[in-house]
Each structure stands twice: as C-alpha cells, then as structure tokens.
Amino acid sequence: MTLLAVERMKLLTTRSPWWCAALALALTIGFAALMAATADARVPVTVGASQFGYTFGMVVVMVMAALAITTEYRFGTMRATFLAAPNRTPVLFAKAAVVALVAGVIGEVAAFGSWGITKLLAPNADLALQTPYEWRAVAGVGLVYAVAAVLAVGVGALVRQSAGAISILLIWSFLVESLVQLIPRVGDDIHRWLPFTMADKLITGDPDPSGRDVIYGPPPSAAALGPWPALLYFAGVAALVFAAAVVTTNRRDA
Amino acid sequence: MTLLATERMKLFSTRSPWFCAVLALGMVIGFAGLLALAEEDSSSLGLRETLFGWQFGLMVVLVMGALAITTEYRFGTIRTAFQAVPNRTAVLLAKAGVVAALAGVIGEVAAFGAWGTAKVLAPGADLAIAGEAGWRSVAGVGLVFAVAAVIAVAVGALVRQSAGAISILLIWTMLLENLVGIIPRVGDDIQDWLPFMAVNRFLGNSGPDPVMGPWPSLAYFAAIAAALLAVALVVVNKRDA
Q1: Selected residue of A18, A42, A162, A167 to mutate for chain B interface (largest B Cβ count, 10 A)
Q2: What is the pLDDT along chain B (241 residues), one digit of tens a residue?
Q3: Interchain pair A52, B185: CB under 8 A
Q4: Radius of gyration of chain B (CA)
Q5: ipTM greater than 0.90
Q6: Helix/strand/coil (H/E/C) assignment for every residue in chain A
Q7: Exposure winner among A162, B27, B137, B219, fewest CB in 10 A?
Q8: Is the distance from CB of A127 to CB of A118 less than 8 angstroms?
Q9: Would you list the domain boundaries of chain A?
Q10: Sign of the C-alpha dihedral, residues A215, B206, B156, B74?
C-alpha cells in the first residue's frame, strides 16, 4: 500500500501527467465537438462517431505512462526508489497499477465527455446507449487506455529513455500496424493479429447488425477475434511486455 | 563555416544520429525488401510500392532532427554554444542546415537503396525510373526528409524537451493529418492544405483533382518549414537559453 501511495504522489505531484491528462481530454472531447458541430444530413452523428478522437487520447496516455517511468531514470530518482524498496518487482507493479488507473479514469472521462458534448451540440441525434456495441464504444475507451498505459510503462522500463520509448510506442501503434497491410499476401493476416488492431476491436468491433449504420463511426477494426477476446489479447501482449520489463529491471543496474 | 563544422561535429560525435540513420535506412530498405519478397507475381510490383516505407524513414528523421536540438537543452550544452557564439540565429541556422543535409542524404540513400533492393529481389518487376514523375517519387524522398528535418529542428527549439517535441511531431504527422479528413464537410478542404499531405502530393500519392501540383506542394511544405524556423529563431533570441 505504501508503494501505491508513493507512486500516486510521484505521479500527481509532477506536472507532465496533468498536462497529458488535460491534453488527452481536450483532444478527444474537442474532436467530438468538431465532428458534432460540422455534421450534416449525409453524415449523421452516432455514438460511434462521437468516439473518433479516442486514438488521440490513447497516444497521449501512452506518452504519459512512458514518461512516468523514463523520467525516473532521467532524473536518477529510480536509484533512490530502488534503495528505499530493494524489491523492484512490487515497485514496477505499483507504478503500472497507478498509471493504469489514472489512464482508465482519463479514458472514461474522455469517452463520456465526448459523448456528452456530442449530445449537447447535436440534440436531435440518436445517441442513446442501448446496444452492447454502443456501450463498448464509449465505456470501453477507459479499459483500452488502462491496458495501453501498462504496455507503455513496460516499454518505458525497457528503454529507459523518453525519446526512445515515445518514438517506439507512437511509430508502432500508428505506422507499423497500418503499413503492415501493404505487404502482399501475408500483410492482412499479420495485421489482424497486431495488438493495437485488437484494441480497436473493442471500440469499433461487432456493431449490432439491427442498429445503425456503422460507416458513420470509426472504421471497424479488422482484428481476428471478437471484441472481448481482442481486449484480452491486447492485455496479454501488455502483460508480456511488462513481464519482460520486470525481468530486465531486476537483472540490470538501475 | 566554423559554426557548420561545430554543428557537424556535435551531430556526428553523438550516438543518436547514427542510430537514427541506421534505423531509417533499415526500415525503408527493409520494408522494400519485405514487399519484394512477399509479392508472388513480381510483375505487379511497381516503383511506388518499393517506396512505401518512406514514411518510416520520415518519422525517424523527424525524431533525429528534434533530438539534435532538444538534447542540447537537456545536457545544457546550448548555454555553452550561445556563450561561444552570441549570435543565436547563426547557431540555429547552422544546426538546421547540417541536420537537413544529413536528412537529405539519408533520404536519397534510403530511397535508392529501397529501389535497388527491390530490383535485386524481384528481377521480373518493371522498376524503371521513368520520366519526371518517376524520378520525383524516388529522388524526392531526400528533399522531403531535408525539409522535414528543418521542421523538426524548429519544433525542437520551440519546445526544448525531447518527449514533448517528438510527441508533437509524430502525433501531428501520423494522426492529426489523417483524422482531420474525417471531419464532415470541411475536413477534406482542410486536409488539402496540411503540410504532410502536401508531401504526399509531391511524392506522387495524390488523389484525383489535387489542389496544387507536385512542385508547388513541395514549395508549400518548405514555406511552412521556413515559417516555423522563423518563429523558433524569434523565440530563441528573446528567451533565456
């Protein structure tokens, strides 16, 4: 418990998490407002469309989570931490848990904020949360952010440098996963099993066929699994990276 | 000239530019190799396909350009640099020049390397660099990388932090410019005027009915880089180092 409290203090008393949280909320909710304000009859506002900005929030959350650990190495506080708590595994777990929790809260606030502002700006649109798809599209954002934060802490602990960790996370999630599709024959099959494609599936996947047209939401993910197994798969990848980070951190000098 | 030499030494005697250069070349050329190997019918492999990986290289070059200036703030060497040469404008211009030159070389080597690799691995494909459009899409990669490096140096000088500068650059290029197109009604019109979309037009990936031709697109991209660099110069001159 002490470790959790320590990590909470470290996170909430530095400026960058606050910055990142504000930025993530502003980007997601701002984008939803933009979408709602510019909508017309050809592009009706739907629950899915209110969540277009969730990838913005996710990258900012991943930057926040990576910084939570790389700044410790940057300023040398990691040494003090490991002197105070020589068992490094609980330290990393506490950090990941606190960061994931903050990320989850940011995600829920961003998602429901986006949905709320869309409702406000487009009062006539049908934005009721009825089907499981619609609930996943909104409430699922927090879950995806939390898992992505664990992944980012893992990468940050492995790389130990802000620039490197952030570059890896952003290039991987935006560019590698989509450019893989260009490879002939095997590209699409690889793409279907990549972690962020899986994460997208929870938000955009399996719309209720009896419900509204999906084309008015973010493009449906091509992931190979259903929404919930896909989230589990994403969480599995995050757990693997995090486990590798724990092993490496224990073996290496701080 | 001394300034250029200083900046060249600073750049080449640190590890991150080398690392970034190797990574950029490896990703661009490696992706071309992957595409050439995975293609069953090599005659369907075109010149444009072999250069799909240029975006990887662009990201790495942006990171390199930003780090070239943010690490100076990170390690405090910018103070020494400005004490030795009180004319900050000259320092920054020299840095941008050297970084842009390196980025341009990386771009040319990556593009021709990717083309050559594809030619070797898929001998049956028609990969002749034909006409102005063909040369532009291969040799243009270096020009784009050079201008992009100037943008990265400008953003790095404005933000002064590696994490912030890299996040801004990567989110802007990879996410923001693409997602803007989703906005109903006005999205496409805004997208036409975004800098990295101009790069796409220059390299020959423009859609139907482009808003301007390839070379004006490059000029537009360069103008945005110049404007950002000008803002960075003003800010760096006014602010404490």
Answers
A1: A167
A2: 789 999 999 999 998 899 999 999 999 999 998 888 887 776 677 787 888 889 999 999 999 999 999 999 999 999 999 999 999 999 999 999 999 999 999 999 999 999 999 888 888 777 888 888 888 989 999 999 999 999 999 999 999 999 999 999 999 998 888 888 877 778 888 888 999 989 988 988 666 677 888 899 999 999 999 999 999 999 999 998 7
A3: no
A4: 19
A5: no
A6: CHHHHHHHHHHHCCHHHHHHHHHHHHHHHHHHHHHHHHCCCCCCCCCCHHHCCHHHHHHHHHHHHHHHHHHHHHCCHHHHHHHHCCCHHHHHHHHHHHHHHHHHHHHHHHHHHHHHHHHHHCCCCCCCCCCHHHHHHHHHHHHHHHHHHHHHHHHHHHHCCHHHHHHHHHHHHHHHHHHHHHCCCCHHHHHCCCHHHHHHHHHHCCCCCCCCCHHHCCCCCCCCCCHHHHHHHHHHHHHHHHHHHHHHHHHCCC
A7: B219
A8: yes
A9: 2-251
A10: positive
Token pair listed for A251: 């073996």
Q: CB-based burial of residue A91 (10 Å sphere; 0-12 exposed, 13-18 middle, 19+ buried)? A: buried
Name the H helices within chain B.
2-12, 15-38, 47-50, 54-74, 77-84, 88-121, 131-159, 162-170, 177-179, 187-192, 195-202, 214-238
Is residue A117 within 8 Å of residue A29, measured between CB atoms? Answer: yes
The CA distance from B46 to A152, in Å, is 37
Predicted local confidence at residue B124, as pLDDT? 77
User: B134 by DSSP, 3-state: which?
Assistant: helix
Residue ranges per structural domain of chain B: 2-238
Contact in structure between B159 and B153 (CB atoms under 8 Å): no
Per-residue pLDDT tens for A46-75? 888 888 888 889 999 999 999 999 999 999
Measured over the CA atoms of residue A47, residue A50, residue A53 and residue A54, the dihedral's sign is negative
Answer yes or no: is pLDDT of A138 > 60. yes
Q: Tell me: the pLDDT tens digits for A14-33?
A: 888 999 999 999 999 998 88
Q: Kindly determine whether residue B67 and residue A179, on different chains, have CB atoms separated by under 8 Å.
A: no
Binding-site residues on chain A for chain B (CB distance < 8 A): 16, 31, 34-35, 38-40, 42-43, 52-53, 55-56, 59-60, 63, 67, 70, 162-163, 166-167, 170-171, 174-176, 179, 182-187
Integer CA distances (angstroms), A173 to A59, A70, A176, B25, in order: 8, 19, 7, 20
Q: Determine the residue among B170, B172, B180, B191 to mutate to test chain A binding: the one whose Cβ has the most chain A Cβ atoms within 10 Å.
A: B170
Predicted local distance difference test score (pLDDT) of residue A66:
95
CB contact at 8 A, A104 and A62: no
CA-based diameter of chain B, in Å?
61
Q: Residue B55: helix, strand or coil by DSSP?
A: helix
